[in-house]
Write a structure and sequence with these properties.
The complex is a heterotrimer of chains A (about 220), B (about 325) and C (about 400). Chain A has about 220 residues and is mostly helical. The mean pLDDT of chain A is about 85. Chain A has helices spanning about 1-15, 25-60, 65-80, 90-120, 140-160, 165-210. Chain A is built from six helices and no strands. Chain B has two domains: about 25-80 and about 295-325, no CATH class; about 90-290, Rossmann fold. Chain B starts with a helix and ends with a helix. Chain C is an alpha/beta fold and about 400 residues long. Among the domains of chain C are: about 45-125, Immunoglobulin-like (Sandwich); about 170-350, Rossmann fold. In chain C, about 45% of the residues lie in helices and about 20% in strands. Chain C is built from eleven helices and 13 strands. Chain C has helices at about 10-35, 145-165, 180-195, 210-230, 240-255, 275-290, 300-310, 325-335, 340-350, 355-385, 390-405, and strands at about 45-50, 60-65, 75-85, 90-95, 100-105, 115-120, 125, 195-200, 230-235, 265-270, 290-300, 315-320, 335-340. In chain C, the strands form three sheets. Chain C has a six-stranded parallel β-sheet, sandwiched between helices. In chain C, strands 4-3-6-7 form a four-stranded antiparallel β-sheet, with no helix packed on it. The chains are: A mainly alpha (about 220), B alpha/beta (about 325), C alpha/beta (about 400).
Amino acid sequence: MEIFGTWVAAFLTLGIISFLYRDNPWYKVCESIFVGISAGYWFVTLFFDNILGLFWAGITREDPNYMLLVGAVLGVMMLLRLVPSIGWISRWPLSFVVGATAGFYLINYFSSNVMLQVSSTLLPLLSPGFGQPLFSSSLYDVVGNIIVAAGTFTGLVYFFFSKEHKGAFGHAAKIGIWTIMITFGASFGYTVMSRMSLLIGRMEFIFGNWLGMIR
Amino acid sequence: MMMRKDFLVYLAVLVVFLLLYFVIPKPVVFSTAVSSIIIGLIVLSLIFILIRTIRGKLVGRRTVFLFVGIAVVLPFFMTISQPIVLSPEVKLVYDSVSELKSGSRVLVSFDYDPASAPELQPMAESFFRLCLERDLKIIIMGLWPQGPQQAELALQIALQDPDVVKKNLQRGVDYVNLGFQTGNEFVIQRMGTSFKSMFPRDTRGVLYDSIPLLKDVSNFSNIDYSFNLSAGYPGTVEWVQVAVDRYGLKLGTGNTGVQATGMYPYLRAGQLKGLLGGLSGAAEFEKATNKIGQATFYMLPQSFSHIIVIIFIIIGNAAYFLGEKKKKKEQ
Amino acid sequence: MTVTRKSKPFLTPIILVLVFLVFLSASLFAQETASGISVAPPANVVASDFNYDRGEQAEVRWKLSSDDNGSAGVIGYEIFRAGVGSEDFVSVGLALPGESYFLDKDVQKGVGYVYKVAALYSGGQSFSDVSNAVIPELEMINWNLLNLFIIGLLIAASVIYFISHAKKGRKLFIRKIAGLEAIDEAIGRATEMGRPILFIPGINDMDDVQTIAGITILGRVARMVADYDIKINMPVSRSIVMTTARETIKEAYAGAGRPDAYNDDMVRYVTDEQFGYVAAVDGIMVREKPATCFYLGAFFAESLILAETGNSIGAIQIAGTAQPAQLPFFVAACDYTLIGEELFAASAYLSNEPKQLGSLKGQDIGKSLAMIIIIIGVISATISRAWGGSFFIWLSEFVNKISTIQN
């Protein structure tokens, strides 16, 4: 059975990779299988892990958690969207989800992604950290501190929408977008590594698990 | 005609794979000499492509795919090894775990699915191995449905390590898998007050209160270190925003390469105590723990593919700038 | 007459044995004393409630033993706890020599406790006096976060102010965003070529603000599609997004005076699974060859796959997302990219909705505040390190204090 599974996996892997050459019936078959199975898999996972595993188990255990029924009712209300005449009911649970998420994120994002990042940008430009002697840091640290402080500031200038990017403000915005683009380049490089890792994993499966060629 | 050509291409590919399966003796190992010859041939062909590009004959995307495929596959059979240098953020994870006393509790959150396993699974295996060797108690949970399943796979590998086998570790006493819980960042929020409310049972169905390891564990304040393996949402960002910034949890993270760049601001601000970024982070961590694993094995194909990409970026830019120059001349 | 002393042959050995015994007992006695030397106990043990928690933690501080001076005397401290009025002390933790603080995380809210700290030495323990009683309490307000509250309030107030400003019909200036003009151009291209438009609103659900921004821009795109009578194709990966998008496009067609031209099949649900969805969208792109592709919303790993496939079919591509990890791919592979907040600005600009416009302006106030803090903080930190100056030191510390979150 395992050998059969390996062969099927190899067939599907090569079918998807064949898209690199050209769209073809082999790719179309694999794509349809993948789309269908993933839709079915998610349905089954959500049903057995969430509805049965968490909701049903939660309300039928020895010390039932009846708060889960509130969530279930909101979920059913969400599904009423499919009935055109009473579809408006679904706006209530949607509002609840959007509102709760917004309130939750408001403080989290503000403290973690704004305040703490601003405070970590308040660097003395010529020393490794506050409290350290002047010029005691390496050139790497000095340049690093300047780039972090200037890059953060000019990046904020670029995303300031209330003023046209003209004059000194425009030049600062230009430095900001250059900094952002360089960051994108670094991110791109990291992501190329990530994608290659996935390809390596698949190739190891093909040449190792399936063909048995790798030691 | 096109269909016939395509059919022949697919048939050729099928024949090649069938030959590889049935005919080629296995395993295939290239000696250093053969590896050097292959590398030399690849370099020559790339120089050839560069010259053609300069002369105006551009190479197609399928050629690029072919070279990337060769760069990924051939190193599997080579015996060349690659030096791996430990970066400070990886060392920070290792040091944070090494500083923990025997019996300390480590919470490991598995927030990824099999699609990200090539990068994150080696990290999980190495991390478990390190914790079990140091007699740390492991509590596993996941915010992605397949996360705890990936944890079990990594755990089985770690438990087979010779240094770990002799400890005769027991589930429920030395490690426990609490499973998956839906709710994303709200789960983390609730765990701040009570683990039991989110995970009333472990994956075997044993009640929380009946698990010896969890006897004195009620929330994050009873956890000595936490490690999050993340491939997207929910993941490290949510753990930092809720568990670290609100509850003061000490957190290290292992991320896919895609996410890793976004984590450096958190590392810089001290919100993260260590970061393993992508496959290179996993390989560095294997080096730190002195146990060579899959990540180290994958690094050679990784490096080769990166070099190929860099060379094609140079070739592509050469083609672009020469094309611009030609356009200006014509104008 | 000569008197001869009688010899005493056993005396010397006896004396030697006695001396040996004296030395032996002295050394034994000395050993016993060394292991039995007690150390001074810790003093001034003070127990207090840990601030700003749920009443589950208590702090214990003490003055170090006078014998804790780096010699082998004190080898550590052990902290003991008992209920108020009880003599039943239990060990709750250890501290290293030189440490004078312990956080007890195992207490209950509202219950009184007392503590004793013992200095540990090789022969035993030297106990301090019992501390004051402490009752851990829950604090409703964490005053350490006052700076977060004030700054948050300032930004919220400015958002509310600008929203009300916009509602009164006053114009709020937003600078030109390059990608927006490209939208009209792209739709015009699709009209000329007679090929459809592909619109991808990301793979997150309607609770993600990026998806909401994408759907807002869809309203504008759908209106132009209805006016120019071109086909729009919108595969989605979330059912709620599907229903919202259908309503948006239906309204657009009704607004254009062509409600009959609308068809539910314009928006189709594919699958929730990320790569299943992108495989299907790739197939649609290659088969239907849209002239224009819009990627506006939250994307993850599928972003480059979509952009590359769109590139390969020669479509004009306009992307916008706030996912930092995906922006590099869109910037590299697409014709125009709305970077991060530009997506929300575009959504506000196109919809002209007071709430969106006011929010954008309010956020600009927040950004101004951040820029001011950075400038003042960096300059004062640099100057105070370089030349000192009590004013710059104070300013630097003040700015650090207002921007740092303390738990």
